[in-house]
Amino acid sequence: MALDPADLTDLGERLLADPLRNEAACRAAVNRLYYACHLTARDQLYGLDAGGLSGRRPSHVAVIDAVRSRHDVDAATRLDDLKRMREVADYVRDSEHSEVRAVFAEAGASDWSELADVAVGITRRLLPLLETIPAGQAQDA
Q1: Across the 141 residues of the chain, what is the mean pLDDT of every consecutive 10-residue run?
Q2: Which of the chain's termini has less CB crowding within 10 Å, N or C?
Q3: Residue 27 CB contacts under 8 Å (≥ 6 apart), including other chains
């Protein structure tokens, strides 16, 4: 049975349901929300699990570029925005780091909780669009 990206979205939102909304939960939610969108786009474009060959799956940038060229420029931009949010959430520990501050500013957020809310909004609008990408075949990767 395949993982349903909607389950990742649900998990991301459940992480944010705690009234305390600590930084770790917000960062983890951003990660899950991005991956719900990325996996949906990738599998719509290239087939489920992009052929199932380890190391042969298209990169995150390749998926975004394919969405841009084959489907929708705005959807690709939103997916790229989520990717940047996910990258700082996963890799930059210091919330005062210039990369984190730049992502916050671009999203209109002042902290991780607000950034996670922005990510939820993007995901709710983006995921249904990505699901409409005409299904690809594994060999398209």
Answers
A1: 84 88 94 95 79 69 91 92 97 95 97 96 95 68 47
A2: N
A3: 89, 90, 112, 116
